[in-house]
């Protein structure tokens, strides 16, 4: 199986694990044996998608961005924090991607329908690259709380490009988006760092605070009626998990 970076203090994953633990017992053997279906959600894999990595592939990580507080004052203007989210609005999934500049104290965002939160995370990277391109930067320091995005920029993109963006004769997930990102990466030096999301306040650094800023910017406004609908859906899922687990 591919090798990726996973932190032992991955708080967002821990929180999701608790939410889905009732499902894991019953469904851990479903789907690709290398990444069971339910774990695709927990580990940031787009559910049902194949990223094109075979079990024997080994990824070499590219250079990593230093912690935000280690950047010099001259480097910080070129640092951008990215995030993406999705939720049900009415009867449709909506996604939102956002980019936050700590020095300029401004955000840039894009929204759409019919895609996942993973798509939104990737779209946020595309937005950040667009900003750097528009401003004619030569260097870009990226910060994300998505392991999928970080690993892609650390090495997966090179693997996909070498395989002509295909896997077993089929395009990889979100191929046009990844191809655009790969083309933009050739125009400037880009470094990326993964940040743990949702850390306790007493452990939060300036880096985490900036991640919270972009997290808020990526949130989708939902009407009260949609919140009730989502709550009912989660309740039905909880009942299903309880019934199928035999508890």
- What is the highest CATH level, the class? Alpha Beta
CATH-level-2 architecture: 2-Layer Sandwich
Radius of gyration: 19 Å
Number of strands: 7
Strand order of the largest sheet: 3-2-1-4-7
What overall form do the CA principal axes indicate?
A: globular
> Helicity level, as a percent range?
40-55%
Distance between the termini: 33 Å
The number of helical segments is: 7
What's the overall average pLDDT, rounded?
76
The number of distinct structural domains comes to 1
Q: What structural class results from the helix and strand content?
A: alpha/beta
Work out the strand percent: 15-25%
CATH topology: Nucleotidyltransferase, domain 5
> Which blocks of ≥5 consecutive residues have pLDDT under 50?
1-9, 13-48, 55-61
Largest beta-sheet characterization: 5 strands, mixed
What are the key terms here?
single chain; 247 residues; alpha/beta; Nucleotidyltransferase, domain 5; five-stranded mixed β-sheet; two-stranded antiparallel sheet; 7 helices; 7 strands; disordered N terminus; RNaseH_sf; RNaseH_domain; Ribonuclease H-like; RNaseH-like_sf
Please provide a written account of the structure.
With 247 residues, the protein is α/β, with parallel strands linked by helices. The chain has a single domain, classed as Ribonuclease H-like superfamily/Ribonuclease H (Nucleotidyltransferase, domain 5), CATH 3.30.420. It has helices at residues 11-27, 37-42, 117-134, 147-162, 175-185, 206-217, 224-245; strands spanning 79-89, 92-101, 106-113, 139-144, 166-167, 170-171, 189-194. Helix 3 runs parallel beside helix 5. The chain is globular, with a radius of gyration of 19 Å. The two termini are 33 Å apart. Residues 74-223 form the RNase H type-1 domain. This is Ribonuclease H-like. InterPro entries: RNaseH-like_sf, RNaseH_domain, RNaseH_sf.
């Amino acid at each position: 199986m591919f090798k990726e970076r996973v932190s032992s203090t991955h708080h967002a994953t821990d929180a999701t694990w608790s939410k889905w633990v009732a499902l894991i017992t019953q469904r851990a053997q479903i789907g690709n044996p290398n990444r069971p279906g339910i774990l695709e959600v927990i580990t940031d894999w787009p559910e049902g998608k194949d990223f094109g990595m075979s079990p024997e592939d080994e990824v070499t990580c590219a250079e990593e961005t230093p912690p935000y507080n280690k950047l010099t004052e001259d480097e910080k203007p070129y640092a951008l924090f990215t995030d993406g989210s999705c939720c049900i609005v009415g009867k449709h999934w909506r996604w939102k991607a956002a980019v936050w500049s700590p020095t300029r104290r401004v955000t840039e965002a894009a929204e759409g329908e019919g895609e996942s939160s993973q798509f939104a995370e990737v779209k946020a990277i595309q937005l950040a690259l667009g900003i750097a391109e528009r401003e004619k930067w030569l260097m870009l320091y990226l910060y994300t709380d998505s392991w999928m995005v970080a690993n892609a920029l650390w090495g997966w993109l090179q693997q996909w490009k070498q395989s002509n963006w295909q896997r077993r004769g089929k395009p990889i997930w979100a191929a046009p988006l990844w191809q655009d990102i790969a083309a933009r990466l050739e125009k400037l030096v880009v470094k990326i760092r993964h940040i743990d999301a949702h850390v306790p306040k007493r452990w939060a650094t300036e880096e985490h605070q900036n991640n919270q800023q972009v997290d808020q910017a990526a949130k989708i406004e939902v009407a009260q009626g949609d919140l009730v609908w989502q709550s009912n859906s989660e309740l039905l899922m909880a009942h299903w998990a309880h019934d199928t687990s035999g508890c």
